[in-house]
Amino acid sequence: MPTFGTWLLTRLNGKCVGTDEFGNRYYVERKPSKTLRDRRWVIYPDNDNEASRVPPRWHRWLHHISDDLPGEAEIPTRPWEQEHQPNPTGTENAYRPPGSALKGGQRARGTGDYEPWTPS
Questions:
Q1: What is the pTM of this model?
Q2: Residue 58 above 70 pLDDT?
């Protein structure tokens, strides 16, 4: 949930323009400034304000890379693109390499090909 100030700003000045698959709601100012770019912001559905949960198509709109809302003018999908996933760092889904203390701590023995640098 947003702070009281963000909630009040959104209630008084914000217009909801869309929601993504994660439940994030995107807003724009109702009365944009004539001299400045319009303000755009996102309200996350829970207390986890994690910016990596914003999908790329909404990121483009939030950062004024494109003025088209996702769904209005779709960008062609590339065959190598994958579905957006939030950053799992700090969660149980985080990557833990072999030998990590969080994965059991058993790492492969050294192969003997490492030579430390020594100054001459």
A1: 0.69
A2: yes
